[in-house]
Automatic annotation (TrEMBL):
UniProt-recorded name of the protein: Two-component system, OmpR family, response regulator
GO terms for cellular component: cytosol; protein-DNA complex
Limits of the Response regulatory domain: 8-121
Modified residues (4-aspartylphosphate): 57
Record's keyword terms, sorted: DNA-binding, Phosphoprotein, Transcription, Transcription regulation, Two-component regulatory system
CDD domains in UniProt: trans_reg_C
Organism name: Marinospirillum alkaliphilum DSM 21637
Pfam families from the UniProt entry: Response_reg (PF00072), Trans_reg_C (PF00486)
Keyword Plastid recorded: no
GO molecular function: phosphorelay response regulator activity; transcription cis-regulatory region binding
DNA-binding region, residues: 135-231
Domain OmpR/PhoB-type: 135-231
Highest taxon listed in the record's lineage: Bacteria
């Protein structure tokens, strides 16, 4: 394992040569790959440690990759890129509707998959070298955000329900530690895979967060700049 790896990615594919090449390509971006040769290996490795992303081949031999995806989505919100030989647009859209963050057509270069993985993780990770998001908790305006459970709780321990986009936007603002972020920066933080957020979407998300968190003072507007979180 590389000492400087800051992301862990699980590769689930029966194609051992492709998995090996992909693991090497990921390593060039300081991403540690863990190979699962089939569905059985995948379920075992999934319990081994937390992962930042799953690269899931539809062809897992004894079990269809989409069955694995469906089961995974019942318990986890782990980001997933599905690798599929089915190039039909409707089939790829169906994969996204099942909860995948992206659907990559096969055959495909391992280097391209690694580059897509690197860009995705940089966009949503908010991770410093040597630190894990599971250890990150932020306290602000009477609320606590826990990156491990992806929950936001008040002083009395009552949690509020946030959508993925709302949580990611709030997470980005807190990670900025009081510095204002532009709408474009927040759009990048909220976007996942093929789902790209617009700057107009950010205003809507901020409005919803303010309503759920108790007012405009929690997220402050900086005219001509963007938004910042009130951490007091």
């Amino acid at each position: 394992m590389r000492d400087n790896c800051i992301y862990n990615v699980l590769i689930a594919s029966e194609d051992e040569d492709f998995s090996r090449q992909l693991e090497e390509a990921l390593g060039e971006f300081s991403i540690q790959g863990y190979k699962a040769a089939g569905a059985r290996d995948f379920y075992s490795l999934l319990e081994y440690q937390p992962y930042d992303l799953l690269l899931l081949d539809r062809d897992l031999g004894e079990e269809d990759g989409l069955v694995v995806l469906r089961r995974l989505r019942q318990h986890q919100d782990l980001p997933v890129f599905v690798l599929s030989g089915d190039q039909d647009c409707r089939s790829q859209l169906a994969v996204l509707e099942m909860g995948a963050d992206d659907c990559i057509g096969k055959p495909v270069s391992p280097d391209l998959v690694a580059a897509k993985t690197r860009n995705f993780l940089k966009r949503i990770g908010f991770r410093d070298h040597g630190s894990k998001p599971s250890a990150q908790r932020w306290h602000f305006s009477g609320w606590t955000l826990d990156a491990t459970t992806r929950m936001v709780t008040g002083t009395e321990g009552k949690s509020i329900k946030l959508t993925r986009a709302e949580f990611d936007l709030l997470h980005a603002l807190l990670h900025a530690e009081g510095q204002p972020l532009s709408k474009m920066q927040l759009a990048d933080a909220v976007s996942k895979g093929s789902v790209q957020a617009s700057v107009d979407t950010i205003a809507v998300l901020v409005h919803r967060l303010r309503r759920k968190l108790g007012g405009k003072d929690v997220i402050q507007t900086f005219s001509g700049v963007g938004y910042r979180i009130c951490t007091t």
